[in-house]
Amino acid sequence: MATDVAGNLKRVVQSLPPHVRLVAVSKFHPNEELMAAYEQGQRIFGESQEQELSRKAAELPKDIAWHFIGHLQTNKVKYIAPFIDMIEAVDSLRLLREINKQAEKCGRVIDVLLELHVAQEATKYGFTPDACREMLASGEWRKLSHIRICGLMTMASNVDNEEQIRAEMTTAWHFFDEIKSQYFAHDDAFKERSWGMSHDYPIALQCGSTMVRVGTNIFGERQY
Ligand SMILES: *Cc1c(COP(=O)(O)O)cnc(C)c1O
């Protein structure tokens, strides 16, 4: 039976407070399903593979705001720089530099989030809090005039233990406050806390999330 994308989307949207934005994570789902969400008014979509994203961006309406949510290799930045709305998972200064370079070539300023590693799983990408402090303290990012750092993104551990998820998201929230006051106190653009996926976004809403990234709860299981 086909997934009721419109009904699912409505339920998710109704469960969000008005200040929280929804990134509909559409990776591995066909254009028709994205369009079903689009027709309900959804405009922010998240993808994690450059080729899939580039194809969908070419085929689908131009007023969609595309968020790149996966691990982005530096050699792929050039393909998405002309159109990407936000790159959510920046985990190195090297990647920041490359985004800045490609954005400059396109005459754009690209919004980015720094990915913070708070999960216990060793496989997840992202800056540890200390690595992030070090990167910000180095100051080089201040010279990158074609990127705009808009906040933090994180993924909690993929576990059932609600207390662990809550603790990790709370760590991210406190870390956001720390670097906001230290580096971005007068920068209104630095305001996003992107955490919460299908299984844990209700917890994220209690832990300061301003942006949730929900796929399965809207589009159903992905067919890899
Ligand atoms: C796939 C993905 C999501 C969405 O996951 P669901 O469990 O389907 O909601 C969110 N964030 C990132 C970084 C992802 O890769």
CATH homologous superfamily heading: Alanine racemase
Mean of all residue-level pLDDT scores: 96
Instruction: Tell me the domain tally.
Output: 1
Radius of gyration: 17 Å
CATH architecture: Alpha-Beta Barrel
Bound molecules: pyridoxal-5'-phosphate
Per CATH, the class reads Alpha Beta
Q: Stretches where pLDDT falls below 50 for ≥5 residues? A: none
Portion in beta strands: 15-25%
Helix/strand order: HEHEHEHEHEHEHEHEH
> Outline, from the CA principal axes?
globular
Summarize the structure.
This protein has 224 residues and is α/β, with parallel strands linked by helices. It is built from nine helices and eight strands.
Topology:
Blueprint: H1 5-14, E1 21-25, H2 31-39, E2 44-47, H3 50-59, E3 65-68, H4 77-80, E4 86-90, H5 93-106, E5 110-116, H6 129-138, E6 147-154, H7 162-183, E7 192-194, H8 201-206, E8 211-214, H9 216-219
Parallel strand pairs: 1-2, 1-8, 2-3, 3-4, 4-5, 5-6, 6-7
The chain binds pyridoxal-5'-phosphate (PLP).
Pyridoxal-5'-phosphate binds next to strand 8.
